[in-house]
């Protein structure tokens, strides 16, 4: 690394001032990135910061609107991922992009097999298996090339994907969240392979949410926030704290006001009121260990935790979208019966805004008004249509209250930006007048303006007595809004405490288990 | 597990299954076992059922369906479906009969039939890939189109009187022991062999499997997705035209009501042959066995003489159901 500083080799990839716009959203705004051979370059940023977009811009999945891309000093613009691959830029995505029904060797060499008896002869399987075995061995991966890919765990499939990428003589290897589904041993194996490749002079782009891993493997990093580069640093000269501050940023005074409101409300919350929902030992095999959680009216409970810590799983259990194996869930003190289904939950005045807006929330072809009224119609049953007057009154009220733009409720949902779609989804649930609102990543991937509006709304709703569970990958957002904080890690609750005088570093300590965190964990367990 | 099945069936199968990962051969072995079992039961129950000539006639009677099922296997392996092949067969028989009637040379007749069938398939493939239309809908349109074109050519059945056609239709090769195998059956088996080679040992074939495994992955792996996807429908069209020629030879006529619903027989044969409807898993040999199983059911009923022919349909229905459920159970893990 320091060598690279003394006499930097020319960069393999230089992206300069690259911009990409989707509809009204500027996904990348004048982003520059340079990749040096023999270096692991981490791409850091929160969800929606533009990491994936940047990768897709480089590899020809998206066309860039402005800016230049130079490969080995030559200006280039790839039209397809295949073209990028031919130029030596290979990508391994988070979901393994191989075919499970073929063998490991076929997956590595498909499209580049050798034939027996000349061009028209059959594919030489023996040669294929031999080449695959050699290439796997050179990376220290121990897999039978003749076995079916789908019969191996995801970690091995991921390594095979890397082997395929490397085998195409990749000079640039992009790893998009390769470790999100791996355990510690598997990560160590992956890092071994990465180190070998680095020694061979490959430029590696590493995208990960796990800070420790980035600091272990990366040499250099570029930090993105809201589609802009906020810094390029050498890892050796950066602390985790600096990185997190760069990633999260400190913006907008509105938020400080929210902070205060949240903290004042904490004082009077809880204790004297009756819980609106309480979960006792609620758990489900493979998704969440037994967890206790009590919600009081008028409070926001923030759920903090990294990707895969069980955040979404908790919300789904609370809402009855997944059936718990253990534990009891009591809604508004009424008996200990379980919620059998989301429908049942809705009847008891629960509402759940899913993390996956596209797949589990929005009906793109229906109008904004229809999307808003779906929840209410569902809870009334289809035999009792909502009177037209009520419909338009409700839609009008909520369009205005949530500031949905464009303010035309007859437009199809797909013509709205992500932020406005999210507002419509919120409206859908608010119309049903829930007592408990479960929000899973309500601000992901939406622009900062809509984000603050939604945050403000959450605060207001709590003030009016609604109980809100707020889940977000952005710790700052969670801290800003919640009265109480629940920290999840590795699919279990490791801490719960009132949000008083906690800052991001404290939460990170709890999660990373560094000194302060351990003490906290013990306190929580006791 | 497959080893048990194999030893129960025959010793050499055990070697076959040890040769490769056994699980993917399981469905085909199941179909093979079923076929052998049915023939065994038939041989015990009815005189003359176990005669090898019964089996050879089975191939002759189902030659066209074998070829159709081969084309359908390509399509289903990519996760698609082709409903147009039955109509395509009828159209091919009519084109052949009409062009022969007006005196075209045989080579030209065959050429034009193969060309028209392939064109229909290619057109549907282009629609499916570039306009992202569901295969079900695109080929349903193709099915109506081809059937409609038949009526444009002729509403009546046209007999085929051509000498060459008749020679091929009745010609056969004699096997040791005095058994004989019709030319059309030989041809159908050749098609199976070529298709098996293409699927197992060419880039195109392996890409077909990759497409069935995951189309988006195949795209990101830099494989020729467009050419392959259009290609399988072109192949299915070509096979339908070949099947049409065989059917014309079998019936010596061209008629717009030929092969109504035959696409469903082909699909049933492919499914019974162990090919996964979601794509990515299956073998042409399985489809061949699937056709033979269907044919054996018919033979059964004709040997029995007391059973209504509708039992054929009922047994096919039950078999398809059993195989689809079995696949589901096998792949759910």
From TrEMBL, chain A:
<dbReference type="InterPro" id="IPR017871">
    <property type="entry name" value="ABC_transporter-like_CS"/>
</dbReference>
<feature type="domain" description="ABC transporter">
    <location>
        <begin position="13"/>
        <end position="251"/>
    </location>
</feature>
<dbReference type="Pfam" id="PF00005">
    <property type="entry name" value="ABC_tran"/>
</dbReference>
<keyword id="KW-0813">Transport</keyword>
<dbReference type="GO" id="GO:0005524">
    <property type="term" value="F:ATP binding"/>
</dbReference>
<keyword id="KW-0067">ATP-binding</keyword>
<protein>
    <submittedName>
        <fullName>Simple sugar transport system ATP-binding protein</fullName>
    </submittedName>
</protein>
<dbReference type="InterPro" id="IPR050107">
    <property type="entry name" value="ABC_carbohydrate_import_ATPase"/>
</dbReference>
<keyword id="KW-0547">Nucleotide-binding</keyword>
<dbReference type="GO" id="GO:0016887">
    <property type="term" value="F:ATP hydrolysis activity"/>
</dbReference>
<feature type="domain" description="ABC transporter">
    <location>
        <begin position="272"/>
        <end position="515"/>
    </location>
</feature>
<keyword id="KW-1003">Cell membrane</keyword>
<keyword id="KW-1278">Translocase</keyword>
<keyword id="KW-0677">Repeat</keyword>
<dbReference type="InterPro" id="IPR027417">
    <property type="entry name" value="P-loop_NTPase"/>
</dbReference>
<dbReference type="InterPro" id="IPR003593">
    <property type="entry name" value="AAA+_ATPase"/>
</dbReference>
<keyword id="KW-0472">Membrane</keyword>
<keyword id="KW-0762">Sugar transport</keyword>
<dbReference type="InterPro" id="IPR003439">
    <property type="entry name" value="ABC_transporter-like_ATP-bd"/>
</dbReference>
<dbReference type="GO" id="GO:0005886">
    <property type="term" value="C:plasma membrane"/>
</dbReference>
From TrEMBL, chain B:
<keyword id="KW-0472">Membrane</keyword>
<feature type="transmembrane region" description="Helical">
    <location>
        <begin position="106"/>
        <end position="130"/>
    </location>
</feature>
<feature type="transmembrane region" description="Helical">
    <location>
        <begin position="64"/>
        <end position="85"/>
    </location>
</feature>
<feature type="transmembrane region" description="Helical">
    <location>
        <begin position="264"/>
        <end position="290"/>
    </location>
</feature>
<keyword id="KW-1003">Cell membrane</keyword>
<dbReference type="GO" id="GO:0005886">
    <property type="term" value="C:plasma membrane"/>
</dbReference>
<dbReference type="Pfam" id="PF02653">
    <property type="entry name" value="BPD_transp_2"/>
</dbReference>
<dbReference type="GO" id="GO:0022857">
    <property type="term" value="F:transmembrane transporter activity"/>
</dbReference>
<keyword id="KW-0762">Sugar transport</keyword>
<keyword id="KW-0812">Transmembrane</keyword>
<feature type="transmembrane region" description="Helical">
    <location>
        <begin position="230"/>
        <end position="252"/>
    </location>
</feature>
<protein>
    <submittedName>
        <fullName>Simple sugar transport system permease protein</fullName>
    </submittedName>
</protein>
<dbReference type="InterPro" id="IPR001851">
    <property type="entry name" value="ABC_transp_permease"/>
</dbReference>
<feature type="transmembrane region" description="Helical">
    <location>
        <begin position="136"/>
        <end position="158"/>
    </location>
</feature>
<keyword id="KW-1133">Transmembrane helix</keyword>
<feature type="transmembrane region" description="Helical">
    <location>
        <begin position="179"/>
        <end position="199"/>
    </location>
</feature>
<feature type="transmembrane region" description="Helical">
    <location>
        <begin position="25"/>
        <end position="44"/>
    </location>
</feature>
<keyword id="KW-0813">Transport</keyword>
<feature type="transmembrane region" description="Helical">
    <location>
        <begin position="310"/>
        <end position="330"/>
    </location>
</feature>
